Give the backbone structure.
Amino acid sequence: MTILLSLLLAAAAQEVVPDVRVTGPGRPNSQTPATLVVEPAAMLIVSCDTDADGRTTRTELEACLRGNFDAIDTAHRGQIGYIDYGRWQTMWLGDQGALPSPFEVDRDGDNRVTTDELLAQFNKLFARFDKNGDKAVTRAEALTVRATAADARGPVGGRGKRGGANRPKPERVPGGRPGEGAPDEQP
């Protein structure tokens, strides 16, 4: 009896560890996800709405950009170098790599960005975002709807403007290019 009790206690003391199964991400669905995107420049433009009416005018944008530029141009020379422009991008656009780039803004190619060059570039952007032509940019106008087929690894091939519907879809290869190496496993 003592042996039987010892065996029962030993069996009860053993921990039951369930099997653990690790799987990869599921197959993407065939529905194309729609994504709302706000470009950094558009985000800056709508943030310049000083009278809080939900619309940014060119006058509000110009005053805002002059103030933002002066925050970096502490010597008040009306121009900054590319390194300082990178600081301006980080502070006001959210990232040093955000567009417009200093090469795009520096129209005379002197490796300096002036207040006038910045205003000229943002006037072009303002015109692009003012979709209804009412001389103001709203948050709705700042939004861009992008519909791109994607899965957990990013965008996937699809139809293009040149009749891509009949092209074979390139195979996905981890860390490689289509056609190189072994394709992903199919379920």
